[in-house]
Amino acid sequence: MGDLEAKVDELLKMAKALDPPVKRIGVQENDSVYLLPVEEICFITTRDEGGVEFYAADGKKYVNFDSITSLEKKLAEDPKFMKVHKSYIVNLKQIATVTTVAGGRDLKFKAWPGEAVKCAQAYVKPLEEYFKL
Amino acid sequence: MDAKIDEILRIFGELTGGGDCFEVVSDAKEGICLPLRDFFCFTTSDSGDVRGKVRAFTSQGEVVLRSGDTLPAIEARLQRYPQFVRTHSSYLVNADSVEKVTPITAGVHELSLRGVPGQPIPVTAYYEERVKKAIGLESLDHVIPWNEQMAAVIKENLRKFVKDIRFMTVGELRAGFSNSQGQIIVRQLMGNIIWQAYNWIREGKISHFEGNLRSFWYSHIKPVLARLGIDLSGQYKALSSTFVDYTASYRLFKYKDFGFADDNEEYRRIGKVNSNVIVYAEKTGHWKTLQILHEQYGVTIIALGGQPSQLSTEYFVDELQKVASLKEDFYIFGVTDFDPAGWIIAESFATQLGVQGMTAIKNVIYGSDPWCVKDMRPCHLILPTYFSTDEIELNKYAVPNETAEQQTKVKNWIAKGGGIEGQPYGLEADAMDRAKLRALFYEKAKDVLKPVKPTGTGRRLLRQYGGVDAY
Fold first, then answer.
1. What is the model's pTM?
2. N- or C-end of chain A: fewer Cβ atoms within 10 A?
3. Which of A67, A19, A58, A62 is CA-nearest to residue B96?
């Protein structure tokens, strides 16, 4: 029974993963703020013109003017999000395929068949641990 | 450890749809018990046979609650749950069900709820803070961090094109700038041509533009619209209002970034000593009088030549900024016709100055006449009060008051203190004798004018036209 507390801690961690602190992210949609549920995000990347773009599972792109660094912090407690490149954060639950390519892995998403997100070499290990590859 | 287990139970409770169940009793005395997350909104009805009763919007549809359950009673029962928030005197909303927030006017917003489609929920200014906190947004107006320029670029759908848009084929233009019905969105096409030209100038890919806005229309816009068979009427106006939006509202760039020539360049002088005292005239016919004031008192002058253009005002303020700080107090005197059009000119000029960063427009002739609203607006020098009864009788004319548009303008003007004894009569700026006009200006401005020695030209003009020697 000595390790009961440790087991409860583990259970709490798992429960919190199911109930992350940030559940929705505000994105700009014309004049409105749309609250995009985080589970619907496939991946997040920077825009050439500034700000970030959210590629969503509904096949739409959403935008706000945050940065990858700040979003990484906001999503830190949510284990389904992982930074895979200096300008990409992916939702691990939305990944459809992982392909080994030169310099890392290519990640593909069901809703975005034309887009391959590069997972840089430095992030391959945690990615493969997650997928138990 | 108990606390940890409670937290685990709470999370799993919510996730499995168990957790706290909230019961409401319908009008028909039937109780329904649903998890809290299945309640989207409670509202009181103000009409129909359910008038005065609370309606609950839930995952199981709409339930009309029995008459005893008032909104404050429901609110009290839900007090422990921070996701339930009042947004309006007759709305209690589950913040977790909010899908979209739209600003309507200052301090007024609307929420769209997941589960209650097509029914916008009002948020009044009084509840704004609470709503922000409950939804977890820093602002209900726009995303935070906010970037007006980037937002404008998205809103106007301005993109980067490798190919010069002007040289695109009709097919390429249709592919790039059509709506879902296949019609060209002219505003978007114009906007992207402007945006491309601006970026290419900035990147040094092409040189600054040597013409004016008109020439830009002929060289960049008209040929493309013509090629697409678009009706050209009104399109030059659309181009210039697109420019006004981009420069004044969105501040994407300035006219000078393009190097556009200002048609009005000849008609402005920046004062040396009293640069913060500005006299403007609606017509270039008053230029000579303005010049005398400029030479005599060292004031800044500008003749607008009809409606002031944003481009001209930008260049004017730019030049003014070389000698004066925009943080200074500015005193502005207007020589416009005393009629609705003159009033609109004065208002738009003041607004444009504000857009260009001149925020401290003071007024020196308070009180006696309604045309000198305390701050931010210019003083009008052409007012009936400066004319004798005889002069008014000889000079007054009926302002155009036929069409609905004219009637609205006249009505607004009279409401602001326009008209002669409340009647739709006006006075031309030219009705006032020029020497009298200059003397009137000095009389009104003398307290804010720094003493100045007239220039040689000033002395000559003084001898020639007469006037007070301020030195």
1. 0.74
2. N
3. A19
